[in-house]
Design brief:
5 helices; five-stranded mixed β-sheet; Glutaredoxin; 9 strands; 164 residues; alpha/beta; two-stranded antiparallel sheet
């Protein structure tokens, strides 16, 4: 399991437009909200993506980018984004490598068959690339506002004379 304060595991994944997005691009520039969700189009995942998108401008005002990751492919992400007017960046991890790095991939035994699932989880990464918060098994309703408060706290800490 990842530890708060450690460097966030690096990754580079394609987005809905098949453009590569890497965590390193944000280091020193933006805080990152990295949220993992099970599947495009399910009710909880749709609610979560819409709420993050509804507050996307506010996250941006606080020097933060929101990235959603699921095992779905780029085409599925593009359809999901377009259908719901999503503004958050959706990243495709069909092989589950990044899900594995962040400890959100579960393999369950269902009647003798192995089934892989993704734990709904959110990681808040500061501008230095360190993990500041790791939230597992989150409830999608209201989660975006909860995470926005965490971002505001990080920004306040960074502006405090004690932490400079």
């Amino acid at each position: 399991m990842l530890q708060i304060g450690q460097a966030a595991p690096h990754f580079s994944l394609p987005d809905a437009d098949m453009e590569s997005v890497g965590l390193a691009a944000f280091k020193g520039k933006k805080n990152v909200v990295l949220y993992f969700y099970p599947r495009d189009g399910t009710p909880g995942c749709t609610l979560q993506a819409i709420e993050f998108s509804d507050h996307d401008e506010e996250f941006a005002r606080h020097d933060c980018v929101v990235l959603g990751v699921s095992p779905d492919d780029c085409i599925s992400h593009a359809e999901f984004r377009d259908k719901h007017g999503l503004s958050v960046c959706l990243l495709a991890d069909p092989e589950g490598e990044v899900c594995e790095k962040y400890g959100v991939r579960e393999i369950k035994d269902c009647d003798g068959a192995k089934k892989t699932s993704i734990v709904r989880a959110t990681f808040v990464i500061d501008k230095k690339g360190r993990l500041r918060h790791a939230l597992y098994g989150v409830n999608p309703r209201g989660h975006a506002m909860e995470v926005l408060q965490l971002i505001k706290e990080i920004n306040r800490e960074c502006k405090s004379p004690k932490t400079r």
